Amino acid sequence: MIRITIYKDKSNNHEIVGFLSEGHAGYDRSGKDIICAATSILIINTINSIEKFTDVEFEGSSDEKKASIKFMITTNKNNKESLVLLKAMELGLTEVARDNPKYISITFKEV
Fold first, then answer.
1. pTM reported for the whole predicted model
2. Which residues, in sequence order, are bridge partners of residue 8?
């Protein structure tokens, strides 16, 4: 199962400031798993878009063996563009999780 934690800033209107994604969906074998593919595309595209289209700074890490990606905004947390991109990612992930609850779960954590 893919476990996603979306971090929301408790002092900034509960806006998204980062996330952690861990695990494999287990929907199908590697290379055929559409749940993993959808999740990966949403997450990687969000990170790439924030890097390319905004001026926020962030920290990120990944571990291929653990199938994990962590992303945290470190400066300019009120950047409108990054907030829209993160909300769009949340919407996409929530839709995937709603339709596939056996393979992906989402939790929210205040930081």
1. 0.93
2. 16, 110
What is the secondary structure of 14-49 as a DSSP string? T-EEEEEEES---SSSTTT-HHHHHHHHHHHHHHHH
Output the pLDDT for position 103: 98
4: left (phi over 0), alpha (psi -120 to 50) or beta: beta
Strand order in the sheet with 68-75: 57-63, 68-75, 16-22, 2-8, 104-110
Token pair 């991109």 in the structure block, residue: 85
Chain position carrying tokens 């769009």: 88
Long-range interactions of 76-84: CB distance < 8 A, separation 24+? 77/9, 77/12, 77/15, 77/17, 78/12, 78/15, 79/54, 79/55, 81/50, 81/53, 81/54, 82/50, 82/54, 82/56, 83/15, 83/16
CA–CA gap between residue 100 and residue 35 (Å, rounded): 8
Q: Within the chain, which residues score under 50 in pLDDT?
A: none
